[in-house]
Amino acid sequence: MVLWFKDNAGIPLYSVDVRDKVSRQPAHWSAPEVFGSRAKFNIDKSPASLLIKNLKRHDQGIYRCRIDFRTIQTQTYRYNLSVIVLPEQPVVLDRWGRHINGTKLGPKEEGDDVVITCRVSGGRPQPEVRWLINGVIVDDQYEQNSGDVIENRLLWPTIQRSDLNSIFTCQTMNTKLVEAKETSYVLDMHLKPLTVKVINAPGTLVADKRYEISCQSMGSRPNAIITWYKGKRQMRRTKDEILDHNTTVSVLSFVPTTEDDGKTLTCRAENPNVNGLFLETDWKMNVVYPPMVTIQFGPTLVVDDIKEGDDVYFECHVRANPDWKKLQWFHNDILLQFNASARIIQSGQSLVLQKVTKQSAGNYACSAINAEGETVSDQQLLRVK
Question: What's the rounded Cα separation, in Å, for the pair 368 and 362?
Fold first, then answer.
């Protein structure tokens, strides 16, 4: 006979009777309140073994196998069965004790602290609970909360841009017989732009001609929003293109005017998810255009009271980029030839007519020439009494 006992019990929980094997099969009996159909003693193999299926927590204990023989001394063997109860899957809580769903941690900003708690319930023996970042153990200090709940609170201070997509893993285990249970989260971050610059900008702009100017920003997550300004006025005619996950190019289409020469275009890149942080770059416009020319009487003249023998002078006002190279004067559309004996003198941007006669009357104009062209002013009528 083979009899199995547990702990100090005097009543067997399983038995095999082979005393009358010649006439019938061995008689197996399993206590229904202990193993029932979960246990089977196999005597056809050597060594004979007791197979217990679907192990339960309460199956743990010291088992005693007693073998009774017909003619020799009874033999007894003892086995200490330890039943490991695996812990439940770890759950992760934020700093306010709320369960974090999904697989994403954040999004966070640079300089933020990551404060998360891993909570594990159950397990015998008591499981270890530890934090790993990118597979490296960073915190293995845990404490028992209440009942069979164990917690490990991780403080990971002042995260940096380099921490983006780091994997935070809570791991628990209480045996090497099975793989550790894990719950992992990927750190998501909102990042400010790192660079902003105007690219492929022409050295000069021709007035009244349409141009497309590009501005590129890199490093923002999600991609930066780019806005253009001329002075304080926002430029609206833009189109954006996302080149990759952190590079954005904005193309501004505009027509510069002569008034834009020397003014500044500003390209601003910002991540609206990162409060108060943006980058700007300025680009000073060099707008070239033909001369803009006006003619006026000298400010001290009384235009309606000019008579023969008076001195008359005109001023030619020129605004040009690049600067004018040549200035000319016309009388009744005829180019004036200057000579002191004729009392027709050019001085800088002024025309001086000394001791005018009635032949001096008529329409006067001036013209200026630069690399962009020539411009003739409107005419100014001179009356001589």
Answer: 20
